[in-house]
Amino acid sequence: MSWDTELTALVTRIADPLFARPEPRQAFADLVRALLADVPRKNSWQLADHIGHATAHRFEHLLDRAKWDVDALRDEVRSYVLAHLGRTDGVLIADDTAAIKKGEASVGVADQYCGLTGQVENCQVIPLLTYASDAGHAFVNRRLYLPEAWAHDGERRGRAGVPEYMAFRTKPQLVIDMLGEEIAAGTPFRYLCADAGYGRDPHLRAFCHERALGYVMAVPVDLPLAAVRGGAEPVGHVLDRLLAQGTPQIWERRSCGNGSKGARVYDWTAVAVAVAEQAPAPGYAHTLLIRRSVNAPSEVEFFLAHAPFGTAVTEVIDAAGMRWKIEENNEHGKDLLGLTQYQVRKWTPWHRHVTTCMLALAFLAVMRATLPVDADEAADKGKDRPLLEASSC
Question: 364 is in which domain, residue-wise?
């Protein structure tokens, strides 16, 4: 089946129950196709011009005033991704991206930290969940972070169409909300992966412990661990003691997956730990993974793994290496599909634009999964690998 035939079948299947009238149904199909096209700037006017509309009014109406359920579209995106990419050993990856904006009218925009530039910018922050497996990866859920200044400003919320029930939620709390939706939907995943901005949050970790969910999340150097002689100590002290032993055998060099430049090889070690005042789920244990750059040994990153007893450390290292896949989704979503190139300002149009982009990205991921696998890549996936056993320190 050609990609054009597959896209038509996908959009028709989703649009028929989503829209009561043929006009928004056709506008939706046109918008998805335009997002997938080679359009330099993917705002409504340029997308409309590419598809052959005289004006952007049909797209603007679809995103703003037309009556349809954007969460139903989100559910369809998830179902499509899982039908083609879902695996029992899949992972969910949490991260946020930013859309730099001008002015103060766009919903959720504020002076806040922007990961794109590493500094404070006037931007919107978008927490996202990616589903990833050996078959591929794509977004399955999204939120718009509403800063406290917005959450408590009724007049501003009203102008942007923010629903009255929306209260202030931190970014980790938004990820918890999305995780709850994935659990309710039956999304099959073995681990949650995230960077230290989420791994440091005790509430997110507690949510996983209470529901016996595995995770492999980066954590900051000052994360408190239970010390051997009582009290607490920061994660960094564990590495200090390992290095003080002076034995190079503590490191094992291995790949945690392939990136754009080939295998992503690091030195790794693993230590069984206890997190201060936070026990793992029954039948689970905490392991601290320490990753060291091969070319710059002073560059070290820490990961906290929450996994069932007896889990091979190679498995959690592989999970740690999956985190970069959401960065690829962010890059492709922005550069190829206009994820943050919208000109909408209100709550509902924002969610509709972003979720439609998620559908376009999911389509690309599924089509990529149907391509023949390179023989060398397939052989590399099948290689037996030694186990790196966790030890206590």
Answer: 69-214+319-392
Q: Is the pLDDT of residue 161 over 90?
A: yes
pLDDT of residue 388: 36
213-229 tens-digit pLDDT: 999 999 999 999 998 87
Number of domains present in the structure of the chain: 1
Identify the bridge partners of residue 272 per DSSP, sorted by sequence position.
287, 392
> Is 284 inside a domain boundary?
no
- Gap between the Cα atoms of 323 and 96, Å rounded: 12
Return the CATH number at 370.
Answer: 3.30.420.10
Tokens matching residue 371: 């391509």
* 3-state class (DSSP) for residue 270: strand
User: Per the domain annotation, does 258 fall within a domain?
Assistant: no
Q: Is the dihedral of CA 176, 128, 199, 311 positive or negative?
A: positive
Number of H helices, E strands in the chain: 15, 13
pTM for the full predicted model = 0.92
CA dist 71 and 55 (Å) reads 27
pLDDT digits (tens, 9 = 90+) for 330-386: 999 999 999 999 889 999 999 999 999 999 999 999 999 998 866 445 444 433 333
* Long-range CB contacts for residues 12-17, cutoff 8 Å, separation at least 24: 14/73, 14/76, 14/359, 17/72
- If phi over 0 gives left and psi between -120 and 50 gives alpha, with beta otherwise, what is residue 374? beta
- Report how far residue 270's alpha carbon sits from residue 345's, in angstroms, rounded to the nearest whole number: 47
Residues ≥6 apart with Cβ < 8 Å to 129: 92, 93, 94, 139, 140, 141, 142, 175, 178, 179, 182
Within 10 angstroms of residue 160's Cβ, the number of other Cβ atoms is: 21
